[in-house]
Each structure stands twice: as structure tokens, then as C-alpha cells.
Amino acid sequence: MNDQKVRRLTELGIALALATILNFVRIYQLPQGGSVSLEMIPIFFIALRWGLKEGITLGGMYGILQLILGAKIFYPLQAILDYPVAFGSLGLAGIIHNWIDKNNLKENGILIFSSVILAGGFRLLIHIISGVIFFGEYTPKGQNVWLYSLGYNASYMLPEILITIIVMIFLVKSSSSFIATK
């Protein structure tokens, strides 16, 4: 195994551990599940640094680890959607990996903002769909199930996405060797 592969695997392992630890640093938690934490930051960092494949892999592995560590599971398909699929979708941020230019901080900020919005939006969409399919029966009478699920999931996802954007822009700007060469 060459040095680059060892570095990539090591960074993925560290990011997986860090995301797990950051999951316990919760800013707030909703009673029926969902919380604002810093758990997405290491997943985005890897996706932006190493690319799409590594980001999706790390996100999926993190989702599986969440299941093992006692995630809220009500239905088997809900568990798959809310954890490995939802967190795996964060790796979509890696599509801009090859466009990041360490010499163009303004453009990097726009790219990072866009990629976190895209990938975080996919995670939000997956949680909304899961909410409609598996938890729609809890929607208050007279409310649209889609809007209820959107409101509930957006109440924790939007602040987490915003925090992640701010931290990721800071991390990339402060790191002179952020981009990994493949």
C-alpha cells in the first residue's frame, strides 16, 4: 500500500472517530430525534479533501456506526434511510473536490457553501421522506404531512448546515495543505 492510501485510510478513520465524538457535543436535541451537533464537519472535510467516493463511504460508515451505537430505530427501512443513506449523502459535497483552488479563497468559499447546501439538502430531503413514510401518522390533524416533516427536520438540519458552512470555510481558509493529491 502506498503512502497516499495509508494517509487517506488514516484520515477516514480519524474523521469517523471525530464525527462520533462531535455527535455528543449537541447544541440542542429535539424530543422525537434529530439534533444540532458538529458531527457533519469531519464528513464534509473528508469529502472536500479527498472526493466523492471517500465522502460517501465515510458518511455511510458513520451512519452504520450510529446504528450500532444506539440510534433511534423504529422500522428497518427507516433505519437505513435515516442513517447510512442520509449521512452517506453528505459525501456528495465531494463533487467539488477537484475545483477547490488553495490560491482562490473567495471562490473556495462559494464552492464550499454550495456543496454543503447541496449535500446537506439531500440529507434533509432523505429525513423528510423518512418522516412522511414512517412518522406521518403523528402529524397534527389538519396539517400537511410533507410540510410537517419539512418543518420538523429543517428545525435541526438548517442550523447544523449553517454551522457546518461557517466551520468548513474557516478550516479550508486556514489550511495551506487542505487539498489532497490523488
From TrEMBL:
Molecular function per GO: thiamine transmembrane transporter activity
GO cellular component entries: plasma membrane
Matches recorded under InterPro entries: Thia_Transptr_ThiT (IPR012651)
UniProt xrefs under Pfam families: Thia_YuaJ (PF09515)
Gene3D superfamilies tied to this protein: 1.10.1760.20
Spans traversing the lipid bilayer: 12-29, 83-100, 112-134, 154-172
Domain of life per record: Bacteria
Keywords: Membrane, Transmembrane, Transmembrane helix
Coiled-coil region list: none
NCBIfam families: ECF_ThiT_YuaJ (TIGR02357)
Protein name: Proton-coupled thiamine transporter YuaJ
Organism annotation: Acetohalobium arabaticum (strain ATCC 49924 / DSM 5501 / Z-7288)
